[in-house]
Automatic annotation (TrEMBL):
It is an enzyme of class 3 (hydrolase). The active site is at D85, D267. It comes from Mola mola. PROSITE patterns: ASP_PROTEASE, PEPTIDASE_A1. This is pepsin A.
Amino acid sequence: MVWAFAVFAMVALSEVPLLKGKSAREVLEEQGLWEEYKVKYPYNPMGKFERSAVGKVPMFNNADMTYYGVIFIGTPPQSFKVLFDTGSSILWVPSVYCTTPICNIHNKFNPDLSSTYRNNGSIFSIPYTTEGVGGFLGYDTVTVGGLTVVNQMFGLSEAETPNMMHVVFDGILGLAYPGLALSGATPVFDNMMSQGLVRQDLFAVYLSSKSQQGSVVTFGGVDPIHYYEPITWIPVTRELYWQIAVDSVTINGQVVACSGGCQAIVDTGTSFITGPEKSMNNINSCVGSRVLRGDYVVSCHKISQMPDVTFHIQGQEFTLPASAYVLQSQYGCRAAFFRGDDSLWILGDVFIQQYYSIFDRAHNMVGFAKARKST
């Protein structure tokens, strides 16, 4: 289904610039610690999607997350770098009460310095392998891209997993549905809608693939400077995550995965594309990658010869060239197709870099349009 999309005056939109900093993996590789780290904290791309007891929202290990933006909490405002995550629904940041040394390298919220802060009285816990992030819940004013949300519930961490030592951002701002939220907390975007702060009940994400700057989250509308028409609209199949139906995955016209259809989550909080082991092995075999110490490595000199991978969604083709799905660094090249869950795929940043993604709560749809390349 392809719809024309009415764009309101840009003054009605609120945009949060995203920076693409070094990933935790890059930092660890520079320090010679990556091999030890990935054994201790194995990658579990589906971890945060597993439902658990009330008051707990699983988190996951993704050392390649690099996109973050700045928000403000409290009066006067205290600033924090956060990961905008469409795969979770809670907002949390470190607090001055955090007792683990990891918090000392991040910005910490001090409720005593905010005249609008109110304590909630509840605790929160986010499991993370054998350790996690935990603390208590409170309410305060949160400003995102010039939009001021009042009485926003958020988590203030008192303890954090050692994994947080290697990430650039301080905390996470979840943009999934309320059903995934922690302890009944209303997600930030839901409060934006209910408080009448956005012109349209949608937000959009543009991720630059190369430049450290240029990426942006737009609340309340879309920014045509970042995409080419048309926009293809796909219904959400489960109003918990941004979950959609995929028809198939092909290479050179042949179905290599998702035969007969599959379900996928569009997730800004995951760097890669993940899916069932058999499907990932088949795709990696077809593109010419091989397993080496847990990575699907490819020859950096053969990227131009590698085939496109095409996702068929809602009758439309969404193609990823090798230049998009091969991650290049000074330490080599690897394909961005990783084993995940046997029932759900994740279309992460590798996909979103190629396709401007619109998350429409008014109609419960996800829109994709070809992204304009940043210069």
